């Protein structure tokens, strides 16, 4: 190759590269050019290699030209990259622009279901009395739900608890499971579980969901909530039961709440009582809500029957105890003047969000 050829090639390449650099619109394209021109197998590199083909005398001048072009190109590339980088940053700042003054998206904060707020109030009151919380399963056995509670099979008192049975697997038409699996009709079976799991002195409340075979209307449901209570100790008496429940009613409804005990009947307590508070709607003067009696029954209770203590593994000659059970649903409805129990079970946020503030 002649010196003139090579000189022309170098000048052409310089001009072409300068044009291409100016035309490059992003940093990637500039890097590509650098690779094509100055890279190990780039075009200017190839030209420099072919220097050996020109006469030795002329090499220094051409070499100087080529190296000069190389330096200029390197500088031009760096400058172009700087320009484009700045422009890239501007483009990104524009595209990813944040409006710091825009209002935030509201975060939905959950809240307790009104039934659970009442349950929590019960927990707090009984916690102050020294009770722990003990929980049992919603799916129970006939043995725990009835027999251990002194309710033998075919005993007429079973009619008090219309039961939802679990079907024997594969039975068609369905028949009750042979192993006696049912949905618990009250929280009382948890008394047995607590007695078996804990050592006296026992002082527990047992909240939970219960189920009964009941047609659904404004005041009935196949599912509802109860809180059970149990105390077992060596000197526990009916007086302790009365004192505890009166204090509970006062903590829930105020110091001057009127209360009364009436005789009741449950197979698992003896004696049994019903516990009333002055009507929460009319205050005691008589209204449709209290059937003009001035009283509302909020729970059933009594001294734990010796058969039940024994079923719980507790010696009735040494220990006595009392138990009580109350429904959460009606207490919640009265608190918020909710006219229909179905509203509490429907999981409709338009209804439930009214209770976002707690009580
Ligand atoms: N388990 C009874 C019911 O569901 C309530 C109760 C509990 C009564 C404990 C006495 C003692 O109706």
Word description of this protein:
The protein has a 7-stranded mixed sheet with strand order 1-4-5-9-8-7-6, sandwiched between helices. A two-stranded antiparallel sheet has the order 2-3. Helix 5 (114-128) packs across helix 10. Helix content is 40%, strand content 18%. The chain has helices at residues 3-23, 27-38, 43-49, 59-95, 114-128, 142-145, 189-197, 238-253, 306-311, 328-336, 341-345, 349-352; strands at residues 132-133, 139-141, 181-183, 202-211, 223-233, 259-266, 269-278, 295-304, 320-327. The longest helix is centred in the first third of the chain and has 37 residues, at 59-95. With 359 residues, it is an alpha+beta fold. It folds into 2 domains: 3-95; 114-355, BirA Bifunctional Protein, domain 2, CATH 3.30.930. Strand 6 and strand 7 form a beta hairpin. Phenylalanine is lined by residues 186, 188, 228, 266, 269, 300-302, 323-325. Phenylalanine (PHE) binds at residues 186, 188, 228, 266, 269, 300-302, 323-325.
């Amino acid at each position: 190759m002649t010196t003139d050829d090579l000189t022309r090639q170098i000048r052409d390449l310089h001009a072409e590269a300068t044009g291409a650099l100016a035309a490059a619109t992003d940093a990637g394209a500039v890097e590509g050019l650098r690779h094509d021109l100055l890279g190990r197998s780039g075009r200017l590199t190839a030209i420099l290699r072919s220097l050996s083909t020109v006469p030795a005398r002329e090499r220094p001048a051409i070499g100087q030209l080529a190296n000069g072009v190389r330096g200029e190109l390197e500088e031009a590339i760096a400058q172009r990259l700087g320009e484009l980088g700045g422009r890239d940053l501007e483009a990104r700042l524009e595209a990813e622009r944040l409006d710091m003054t825009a209002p935030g998206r509201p975060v939905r904060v959950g809240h307790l279901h009104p039934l659970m707020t009442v349950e929590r109030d019960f927990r707090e009151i009984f916690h102050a009395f020294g009770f722990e919380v003990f929980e049992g399963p919603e799916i129970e056995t006939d043995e725990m739900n009835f027999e251990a509670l002194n309710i033998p099979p075919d005993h007429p008192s079973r009619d008090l608890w219309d039961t939802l049975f679990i079907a024997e697997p594969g039975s068609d038409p369905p028949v009750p499971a042979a192993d006696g699996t049912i949905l618990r009709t009250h929280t009382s079976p948890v008394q047995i579980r607590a007695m078996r799991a804990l050592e006296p002195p026992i002082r527990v409340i047992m909240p939970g969901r219960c189920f009964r075979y009941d047609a659904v209307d404004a005041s009935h449901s196949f599912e509802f909530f109860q809180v059970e209570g149990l105390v077992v100790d060596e000197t526990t008496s009916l007086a302790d039961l009365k004192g505890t429940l009166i204090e509970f009613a006062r903590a829930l409804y105020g110091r001057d709440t009127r209360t009364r005990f009436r005789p009741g009947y449950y197979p698992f307590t003896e004696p049994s009582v019903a516990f009333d508070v002055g009507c929460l709607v009319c205050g005691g003067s008589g209204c449709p809500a209290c059937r003009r009696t001035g009283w509302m029954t909020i729970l059933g209770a009594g001294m734990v029957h010796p058969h039940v203590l024994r079923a719980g593994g507790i010696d009735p000659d040494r220990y006595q105890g009392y138990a009580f059970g109350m429904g959460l649903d009606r207490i919640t409805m009265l608190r918020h003047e909710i006219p229909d129990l179905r509203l509490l079970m429907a999981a409709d946020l338009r209804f439930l969000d009214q209770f976002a503030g707690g009580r």
